[in-house]
Amino acid sequence: MYNNESAGPALDEFLDLLGQRVRLKGFTKYRAQLDNKTDSTGTHSLYTTYKDYELMFHVSTMLPYTPNNRQQLLRKRHIGNDIVTIVFQEPGALPFTPKNIRSQFQHVFVIVRVHSPCTDNVCYSVAVSRSKDVPPFGPPIPKSVTFPKSAVFRDFLLAKVINGENAAHKSEKFRAMATRTRQEYLKDLAENFVSTATIDSAVKFSFITLGAKKKEKIKARKEAHLFSVGAITWSVCTRDFGQSMDVDCLLGISNEFIVLIEEESKNVVFNCSCRDVIGWTSGIMSIKIFYERGECIMLSAHDNCGEDIREMVQRLEVMPFKTLL
Which residue intervals define the domain Rap-GAP in the entry (predicted)? Predict the structure, then answer.
């Protein structure tokens, strides 16, 4: 199969149904490890999309052919490392058996046999061969049914191929291979990118262990709550200059707004965007916040709690206020 130099009319007809031929050089979409710069893996390949998936096929007759090389390693390099393989059979072909294929990766074979190719009555029959530890997957293939050449058959076949690969990932053999691959990646990270860590290669699936250097205790950031995205509130007393009286309020400062809510009525009596604040002055027990064109609100702390005023200033200092030039 690897030594077929070119595709016959029946295969070309099937490929045209399955996807579109694309020029690899300069191809910017999913390329499945094919060379899109120097044509080292052929000049064209077969590409398509199905729902949210991109599919690039490794087509034997579109990959480079090497004369006098029975192994055809340039083709095996790609097809032999695929999980799902479509085997296309023309009329009169011998029955396919996966025993003829030796690969650590090919877990699912979808056999498509064409009937009456290149005629108005062309149709296809489908069968699946899978490794023992690959669970069954849909869509189910009706018994003794042939599929006419149509978009419905194309969608059925693409769904079968995608589901086959997803099912293979659940097999014990493939999961073990994936675990070993991840272990090698972790080992590479531990050995080459972490100076204080070692890995015990003698233990299967070993964990990264810390070196002898004692790990420094991470200290919590002092007053970290003052850097919160949400609002921080304080109980304050604000001066209502219109009525010449003091009003008990809750002051809230988030990273977007400053809000004053009257405690008794629960009404919002003041709000402005943080970007409209132009500055502030503070004393031991009070603070004035200036906004927009120079208007200000004056706030004082309850119960002689000067610590609240200090926290308000610290909160204001980390907010994205307007800069005066």
Answer: 1-189
Half-sphere exposure of 307 (CA within 13 A, CB side): 3
User: How far is C-alpha 39 from the chain's CA centre?
Assistant: 29
Torsion angle of C-alpha atoms 98, 135, 144, 96, degrees rounded to 10: 0
Look at residue 321 and tell me whether its pLDDT is greater than 80. Answer: no
H or E stretch covering 14: helix 9-18
CB 79 within 8 A of CB 68: no
What pLDDT does 239 receive? Answer: 78
Residue position matching structure tokens 């080459």: 192
- Which residue, among 49, 67, 66, 69, has the nearest Cα to 57 in the 3D structure? 49
pTM: 0.55
Contact 68, 45 (CB under 8 A): no
List the beta bridge partners of residue 232. Answer: 253
Residue 258 corresponds to which tokens in the numbers above?
A: 């400053």
For residues 118 and 290, the model is more confident at: 118
In this structure, the chain runs to a length of 325
